[in-house]
Amino acid sequence: MKSWLTIAEDSDFSIYNIPFGVFKTKSSTPRAASILGNQVIDLYALAQGGYLKDVLADAEVLNQKTLNAFIALGKPVTNAVRLKIQTLFSEENAAQKDSLIAYLIPVADTEMLMPIHIPNYTDFYSSREHATNVGTMFRDPNNALLPNWLHLPVGYHGRASSIVVSGTPLHRPIGQTKADDQPAPTFGPSRLLDFELEVGFVVGKETQLGDSISTANAEDYIFGLLLFNDWSARDVQKWEYVPLGPFLAKNFGSSVSPWIVTLEALEPFRVASPAQEPTPLPYLQFEGQKNYDIQLEVDITAENGATKTVSKSNFRYMYWNMCQQLAHHTVNGCNVEVGDLYASGTISGPEKDSYGSMLEISWGGKNPVIMPDGTERKFILDNDTVTIKGHCAKDNVRVGFGQVSNKILPAKL
User: Which fold has domain 121-409?
Assistant: First the structure.
């Protein structure tokens, strides 16, 4: 499959992708979009031009500041729109390209916005390698995983209001911390600010209170995926997390990439999940390939522009997959809403260069990363920018997520 539009071979946004997002320009209000190469497709304008009338009854769902109403139409509609866009911009439809060009806007002339309203946000802790590394550092190397970890996808409810889109700067958080050699806590900016390399999935179909979702039908409820950075203040977290877990160490900000890549686009990149031992309880058992081969990368860029890649990992490493996460989340009757966001938890691989946080990469600060300008990074410094990228590639087909990139500003004192 090829497009009549010129698209670089290494573009995340090939015709095989067709993700969904929300954009605005200096002359337009926020509205739904897709993207091909470096050209944003104005979907509302495309619908007004009559090009989507056979797959979308009401074009106004595309003329909104979030995708929630569009997503709520269900996969039969949203996937039909995606396939129609593929058809319109395919090489076989080159005869219409002169009229379709009017609906394309260069990426440089757009501002990408938060793609969804997020009613609820849950963060999981589903990478065995990450959980083992953290347990080794802070507990017993011979008994790193807590007793429940191999039996259920551990998670906690996070703060939806402070999730921001790529490009939004975040201030260094302030809170209580306590040094091991001090009798009392102190108050001030976090000194151990960290990123967490994650992938999030967006729910596209609601349930009622009391309903549950099985691993067999979980994918019916997952609209698509995006990149996620679960920023973490490690020193604040260490002091506060017992007995109820993360709070101020996490809720100051998380960030997402602006494009939601659909499950349909990711279909060619399914892979087997890691073997699970002991065998999970029946409600967590599943059939088929439920993990995805998504290549991930994290860069740190200093204020002077010096950039270093500090992690190359993969979503395929996840011990607990998305279907298991959603099944566990709802097994007690918890209802889900359109736009709910569920983050994977830090994605770490088996090798040091595939660890998904500075906590692991620097091993708690003992092994600093040396930047190209000679400076050290144990954790993230003020005015550093952290960029997460992700893509899939197989048989000359590339489907990518773009990036989530955010700068850390000094604390607001």
Answer: Fumarylacetoacetate hydrolase; domain 2 (3.90.850)
